[in-house]
Amino acid sequence: MSDFGGVNPGQPGTAGPTRANPSISGTIRQVGGQLGEFSLLRRLGKGGMAEVWLAEQTTLKRNVALKLLRSELMEDESYVKRFQTEAKAAAGLNHPNIVQVYTVGCEKGQHFIVQEYVHGQTLKALLQKRGPLDLPLALMIMRQVAAALQAAGERGIVHRDIKPENIMLTKKGEVKVADFGLAQLQGGERLHLTQEGVTMGTPLYMSPEQVSGHKLDQRSDIYSFGITCYHMFAGVPPFQGENAVSVAVKHLHEAPPAISEVRPDLPPAVCQMIDKMIAKQPDKRYSDAGVIVNDVRKLAKAIRTGESVDELSDETTGPVKQFPIRRPGLVLPALCILVFLLTAGMGWQLRTRVPPLNPNALGDVSVFKTAREQYVHAMFAIDDEDAFKAVIAWFDLPDDKIWRRRANEQLALLYLKDRRREADARAQLEKLRSFEPGDRQLAAEALVGEAYLDAVANNKNPARKTLQSHGEEFNQYLTGSWKQLAQEVRQMTSEQPPQRPMRMP
């Protein structure tokens, strides 16, 4: 018996890897196919190394993700041996932010990995739908991914393929990194630009030393993580090109556009963190993901409380003397909390808070204990109107205000993108104005939202006039998806240059 939960890595009676039988393998890879104690339910995806299936482990009555190694790869015994070695290393990682590998084995000549099934979506899917993320949500994702990298680094495991596709998000706000230790199976440590299965998704996040084929350590993962963070804040990766070669060369020799210029609303400390993670030279990056975890926690606390951060970790290149809060209104919730505690008493504040629930009011929305958890759930649910309404309806303490504000902003964006809901969009934009009268950011968001509705309705003159009259406000106060909305309005209202008449020969 092997130490992978009782599944043998080879067929009974064999000393090593077994060759695949294509006819048998074909009968397995279908709905209802049986692989030992695993019954295949539906295919989830296909990559360069394996097909991924949702399966039921019949003995334990649980769903798992079953990775079936591609038939042609199973003909290479050296490859199969590496497959088993790397899967065993990944199975040794047990951390809440890492997709758990349960077992690895071989049945009927089919090599496979059994891992935790994560019900949710990838960070890539979230970014495609939401665009640039706001700071609190991005920091929450960053902290959990960094914690996963810290756990792997302590075991000497390098992921080699950190990117949004390999970061899973659950509806409970949990973040899990997939495929630890397995990425090198798709091509080793050097980028093979002609290898089957290598796509643009791979070089977009590769470290310079990985592109060059040098020896890797966890600092390579930190670079890829930094590029992923850049993508979260900017909405696109820093380097793009027509092919893998052009992207790889940029990682080696080009500096990306400064994140502070792409997202001027970000605190300097956040920009400094990202710049350090994506330094070209490994010795100029963070040497340990645990330091990133600590810095992210400091920054997240500053966002919640309105405090300043005197300096980040000792590893940073030049300490950050002050962490400026660009929106002074964020300090108000902290002051309100203090007054609330003094007047109502600690016992009231520390009670277990379960939001009131009318089962028929907001559909089938899961209930969470805090506004923050409810908001994160709504963000991960994707276009769930009731989930955002739950944040607004169920949480009314002073420290919940920031999350109700963000839920109102997300509802406005949701309605704006649905042309059938113009009336709802205009009503929600008015709610933004009245949520915190005098807040210039909310006022700017309401204005650009109205300009967008005008542009969509082909009323270009009012939309163009709004852009001209409030351009400075938009540049100063709009961030993330709202900034993208302003760019869309500019594109829709731009005057097309007159075409020159064709000359007759």
From TrEMBL:
The keyword Transferase is assigned to this record: yes
Residue ranges of every copy of the Protein kinase domain listed in the record: 38-297
The keyword Protein biosynthesis appears for this protein: no
Query: EC number(s) per UniProt?
Result: 2.7.11.1
What Gene3D superfamilies does the entry give? Phosphorylase Kinase, domain 1 (3.30.200.20), Transferase(Phosphotransferase) domain 1 (1.10.510.10)
Region described as Disordered: 1-24
MF GO annotations: ATP binding; protein serine/threonine kinase activity
The domain of life for this entry's organism is Bacteria
Q: Which SMART domains match?
A: S_TKc (SM00220)
Keywords carried by this UniProt record: ATP-binding, Kinase, Nucleotide-binding, Serine/threonine-protein kinase, Transferase
Listed CDD domains:
STKc_PknB_like
SUPFAM superfamilies under this entry?
Protein kinase-like (PK-like)
* UniProt-listed InterPro entries: Kinase-like_dom_sf, Prot_kinase_dom, Protein_kinase_ATP_BS, Ser/Thr_kinase_AS
Residues binding ATP, per UniProt: K67
What's the protein name? non-specific serine/threonine protein kinase
